[in-house]
Amino acid sequence: MIRYLKEMAYFLSLMLLTTGAFANTSEVKRYNFKVFLEDKEIGSHRFTVTLFGEKTYVKSEASFDVKILFISAYNYQHTSNEEWQGECLRSIFATTDDNGEERFVHGQYDKEHLLLSTSIGKRKLDGCIRTYAYWNPEYLRSQRLLNPQTGKLEPVNLELLGASLIDVRGETEQANRYRINNDKFKIDLWYSDQKEWLALESTTENGSRLRYQVQ
Fold it and tell me: Which domain holds residue 69?
């Protein structure tokens, strides 16, 4: 617990020290999504991506609440703060409450390794580690991606499915569709020609359709 608090304090102090500089020299991109299970809105997922020289700071905040007959049947809360250097992850501080099951993933780069501490243990990760960086499809071109909820490195491959029409803020637009393949799931993503992230769709374990609609 003490180590957990120290790591949290370190990350927060880092963010506070850089906030003033961000105001004048950074580029900030925000992605705000409504989240639907089938056709029912269940929450939101917000991403703030701050580009600052060769570094990128990413904050992700997800909040889902699935109700049946006005009673909460499933609740999910997730927050992740990441620091990237170029195309590689340098630190991560993520917490998740998955319907009452609490998890954390903390990582800090040290020379040649990402030192990772999770709810189930600690380990060192070699090489250029990346998370599921939906905000930049080029970063998804990896053989493995770090799951910020579980701390596991998951084997993946990315394929371009081609152009398709989707609804974006009430208008029909053509977008480039990509698919992340994993042995357990598939995630479809849509981007504009300018690489703006527009939508996400996947399938839950029980076969329900989960989708993100940009605001």
Answer: 2-214
As for how many domains the chain has, the answer is: 1
Strands 209-214, 113-118: parallel, antiparallel or unpaired by DSSP?
unpaired
DSSP 32-52: EEEEEETTEEEEEEEEEEEEE
What is the chain's percent helix, strand, coil content, to nearest 5? 15, 65, 25
CATH code of residue 109: 2.50.20
- Residues 125/92, Cβ–Cβ less than 8 Å: no
Burial of residue 52, with CB atoms counted within 10 A of its CB: 0-12 exposed, 13-18 middle, 19 or more buried: middle
- Nearest alpha-carbon partner for 195 in 178, 209, 210: 178
Please give the helix or strand (H or E) that residue 13 lies within, else none.
Answer: helix 2-25
**pTM to 2 decimals?**
0.85
User: What residues are paired with 191 via a beta bridge?
Assistant: 176, 197
pLDDT, tens digit, for every residue of 68-123? 988 999 999 999 999 999 999 999 999 999 999 999 999 999 988 999 999 999 99
Whole-number Å distance between alpha carbons of 59 and 70: 30
**What CA–CA distances, in Å, run from 113 to 15, 56, 120, 175?**
22, 19, 19, 37
Would you call 134 helix, strand, or coil by DSSP?
coil
